Amino acid sequence: MNRTGKLLLTAAPIAAGAAAAVAVKRRRARRPAARRRHVVTVFKPRFELESTQLPGSLSEIADQLEITLAEAPGGRGTEIAVRIRDNATVTDGHVRRALRETQSLIETGDVLLPSGPPTTRPTLLNRPLQMATQHGREGGLL
Amino acid sequence: MRALQWEGVNKLAVGTVPDPELRNPGDVIVRVTRTVTCGSDLHLLGGYIPFMEKGDVLGHEFLGEIVEAGPDVRNHRVGDRVVVSSFISCGNCWYCDQKLYSLCENGNTNPAITETLWGHAPSGCFGYSHAMGGNAGSHAEYIRVPFADVGAFTVPDAVSDERALFASDSASTGWMGADLGGVKPGDVVAVWGAGAVGQMAARAATLLGAARVIVIDRLENRLQQVEQHIGAETLNYEQTDVGGELRERSGGRGPDVCIEAVGMEAHAPGAQFAYDQIKQQLRLQTDRPIAVREAIHACRKGGSVFVLGVYAGFVDKFPLGALMNKGLTVRGAQMHGQRYIPMLLDRMAKGELVTEHLATHVLPLDRAPEGYRMFKEKEDGCVRAVFLP
Ligand SMILES: NC(=O)c1ccc[n+]([C@@H]2O[C@H](COP(=O)([O-])OP(=O)(O)OC[C@H]3O[C@@H](n4cnc5c(N)ncnc54)[C@H](O)[C@@H]3O)[C@@H](O)[C@H]2O)c1
Ligand SMILES: [Zn+2]
Ligand SMILES: [Zn+2]
Q: Does residue B45 line the site of ligand 1, with CB under 6 A?
């Protein structure tokens, strides 16, 4: 078997997991039920945070969101829950990225950037992976 | 600058890439003086972790000198000789606060891939695929180190480069296996795998007070190193029945703590290996869990099994019955380097922890592809190939 074939086959079961997760989401999306909230816990006490003054791009899209803060149990910090309002134009991806950036800004004062300049070269094979990593904070389950 | 790049499955080459730049104010640039192969790289090389791109720079166990520091860096200055943890951690999130550094929330710029695969994303690592952040690795003249105040450690004058290098990954990973595996004075500890990670786990178990430490492998030169430099007992799994031998050496109880330092490409004599390899090649399972199975079976009732070997996906024939009915604790983790490196450097300075023998081959970076071939094929007694950029 050539190398390309081997790589693709190797990727298959792991990539299949990701594809299955996406499929589950689609099925859920067809139901008209209310959209699930996106929630993260940031390691900062509730009294130090103000929902209208969260750092990062969350505040830029705040008018399309319902943001609630709650104290997390066991000294774990504060739970930030976001519901996208009906008729909003922001996507789940925007919200995931904004929440992750907000968490990092609250906890570290910064958002980690990928290393660079890049050392990789675009090829046919790595195009899907490059697409995914260009939106690295937008996907996932958050 | 020159760097070792992944060019495809089982294809490496040294090429010219742009010098790394400071990206965040907490970054430093390190001029790499020593960088070394790790068993984890073999899983990338073989295509078992399919998130590599042509041109990615490998390497995550290294030491060097700081040549540039961002404006927010407080603990270091240009000229510091540092050893760096393989995993990248912010030092401020809840996981870092719990000293579970490889689970950091803010150290991976691509959390989506592993969050989808595993439910939640671990942190980023140097030179370890785009699933772990796509950070350029250390097999290069220079490397960018983010969160340098948290992940880079100044090496004391009393510790040589040759020794300190392994605090970066093998020694901290091995220590974690013994520590979080719960090794206590008087324990019998068994370690699967006599690579650098297994050897360091065995040494950690001894230093934590284990009464007997037994390391299992089939490569005689590695077992010899264990006896000579680590001071542990050995067992060659091709020459004896591992379960029976461990039972006999532990008064019939089985080892209190079993540490697996083999990983997803484990080897076994006989039919089990063929079964697992065929299933892996047909993609019916992604990983070969041969040593984990054996560890769970051998472990004493109520004992603990710590999985240091890297696994990516799913395994077959997992002995859940033994785990449940024997009341075992099974745990695993990517390395929490920041938790252990200062203590390890201290022990290295005192001579309690020696590592130099692991560097069986030292080569210029230009010969890194050859170094990986020897490391992968275990040619010429290769345990670790160290590169000098
Ligand atoms: N958890 C972490 O953070 C972390 C860090 C570093 C390495 N690792 C992983 O630890 C594992 C070991 O790393 P290494 O650098 O020492 O690798 P290595 O390849 O040098 O050593 C692995 C050893 O396991 C032996 N082995 C194979 N099958 C075996 C079996 N069935 N029973 C007993 N021994 C067997 C091999 O002969 C070899 O000596 C790898 O999977 C690596 O990815 C994990
Ligand atoms: Zn490693
Ligand atoms: Zn953190």
A: no
B contact test, residue of A99, A112, A125, A130 with most B CBs within 10 A: A112
Query: Which ligand approaches the C-alpha of residue B96 most closely?
Result: 3
**For residue B72, what are the contacts with CB-CB under 8 A and spacing of at least 6?**
A110, B24, B25, B26, B149
Contact B62, B141 (CB under 8 A): no
**For domain B2-169+335-388, which architecture applies?**
Alpha-Beta Complex (3.90)
Please give the class, per CATH, of domain B173-332: alpha beta
Instruction: Provide the residue-wise pLDDT of chain A in tens; the chain has 142 residues.
Output: 333 333 333 444 454 444 444 444 444 555 545 678 999 999 999 999 987 789 998 988 999 999 999 999 999 999 999 999 999 999 999 999 999 999 999 999 999 999 999 999 888 888 888 888 888 899 999 9
* Residue B66 near residue B76, CB atoms below 8 Å: yes
Q: Are strands B61-69 and B385-388 parallel, antiparallel or unpaired?
A: unpaired
Cα separation, B283 vs A9, in Å, equals: 7
Question: How do the domains of chain B map onto residue ranges?
Answer: 2-169+335-388, 173-332
Residue located nearest, by CA, to atom 20 of ligand 1:
B195
